[in-house]
Each structure stands twice: as structure tokens, then as C-alpha cells.
Amino acid sequence: MTTMHYKGYEAVIEFDEDADLFHGEIVNLRDVITFQGASAATLKKAFAESVEDYLEFCKQRGEEPEKPFSGQFVVRTEPILHKAISSAARRAGVSLNKWVVATLERSVR
């Protein structure tokens, strides 16, 4: 699987051998937006067109388009885990936020 980016939107791409087509889906939205193409060039064009269609659809409905993720989220955890990760961050000499970000980055690489 590979990814593509356009105007802050990210899509994952898969290849369907039977259909001889690339399929893409935007993953950093709650809305489902898919596209396809027979080549890299047609896939890139279809991705851009899908994003532009989505933005136009939102405009016509008078709705704000959902933006790609802001980079902020709330995590709820048990107090004992909160205390443990806070202690780990202090031992590492970094803020709780920096410790959590570094831990998450290691887990998704």
C-alpha cells in the first residue's frame, strides 16, 4: 500500500490485479471518498478531482468541508496509567506531550 497527498488530504492506494486498476481512498476524513485510475497519472488526476468535487459539494450545501486532522486529540485513560506515563516523561526530561508523541511515532513506523 502507498499513499498520495493533495491539499492536505491523504489517500491510501491499492492495486487490483484482476481489474488492472489502482483504487484510492482518502483516509484522513470521516467522509468516504474513493477514486480509481488505470495509471499513476490518471490516479493522481482522479484523486485531485475527487477532492475538488468534495470541496464543491460542501460549498453547494453551505457546509464547511471537513479539514484533514488538526494534530490534536484527547486521550482518556485510567489515572494509574496517566501517572505512569507522566513519570516516564519526567524521567526522560521531556513534557508529557513530547513523550506521548515520540512513543506514538515509534509505534507507527
- The rounded Rg comes to 19 Å
Spatial order of the strands forming the largest sheet: 1-2-3-4
Beta-strand percentage?
Answer: 15-25%
Domain unit count: 2
Number of strands: 4
Mean residue pLDDT: 92
Shape: elongated
Number of helices: 3
Helix share bin:
40-55%
Structural class call reads alpha+beta
User: Biggest sheet: strands, sense, closure?
Assistant: 4 strands, antiparallel
Write structural notes for this entry:
- It is a single chain.
- This protein is an alpha+beta fold and 109 residues long.
- It has 2 domains: 2-61, no CATH class; 79-108.
- The protein is built from 3 helices and 4 strands; from the N terminus they run ββββααα.
- The chain has helices at residues 40-61, 79-92, 96-108; strands spanning 2-6, 9-16, 21-26, 34-37.
- The chain has a 4-stranded antiparallel beta sheet, covered by helices on one side.
- α2 (79-92) crosses α3.
- The longest helix is centred in the middle third of the chain and has 22 residues, at 40-61.
- The two termini are 14 Å apart.
- The model has no long low-confidence stretch (mean pLDDT 92).
Notable characteristics:
109 residues, alpha+beta, 2 domains, four-stranded antiparallel beta sheet, 3 helices, 21% strand
What is the element layout, followed by pairings?
Layout: E1 2-6, E2 9-16, E3 21-26, E4 34-37, H1 40-61, H2 79-92, H3 96-108
Antiparallel strand pairs: 1-2, 2-3, 3-4
